[in-house]
Design a protein that fits this description.
Structural class: mainly beta
Largest sheet: 4 strands, mixed
Number of strands: 11
Order of helices and strands: EEEEEEEEEEE
Strand order of the largest sheet: 4-11-10-7
Shape: elongated
Strand content: over 45%
Length: 107
């Protein structure tokens, strides 16, 4: 994470400060490998960042929104027909390289 700030002394002299810090020590995302959801129902995904002391900011993306929609807070809604599956991926907002795929099946 890189942050910067600039100041101007009013005489046209500017100074900048840069700060570089590593991404939080996120090891993984704890979430189920698979979930079943009934047709036309809602289900909240339970997921958390490991270790628990890391920022818990997560977002969720469905690989097939015509089957299962998912909100940014992990509330799924089955809009497609039973017997079909898709992936819902849970991403860390602090480090998007850390994610977990969940196979979601509409039943």
């Amino acid at each position: 994470l890189v942050t910067s700030s600039s100041t101007d002394d009013g005489a046209g002299n500017r100074s900048s400060t840069f700060s570089i810090s590593s991404k939080a020590n996120i090891e993984s995302i704890d979430a189920p490998d698979t979930l079943n959801i009934d047709e036309n129902t809602d289900l909240q995904i339970s997921a958390s960042v490991v270790p628990a002391s890391s920022p818990q900011a997560l977002t969720y993306v469905s690989s097939n929104p015509s089957l299962v929609t998912v909100s940014g807070s992990g509330m799924m809604h089955a809009v497609g027909a039973a017997g079909n599956s898709c992936n819902v991926t849970v991403f860390s907002l602090v480090n998007p390289q850390i994610y977990k795929n969940i196979v979601v099946t509409v039943i």
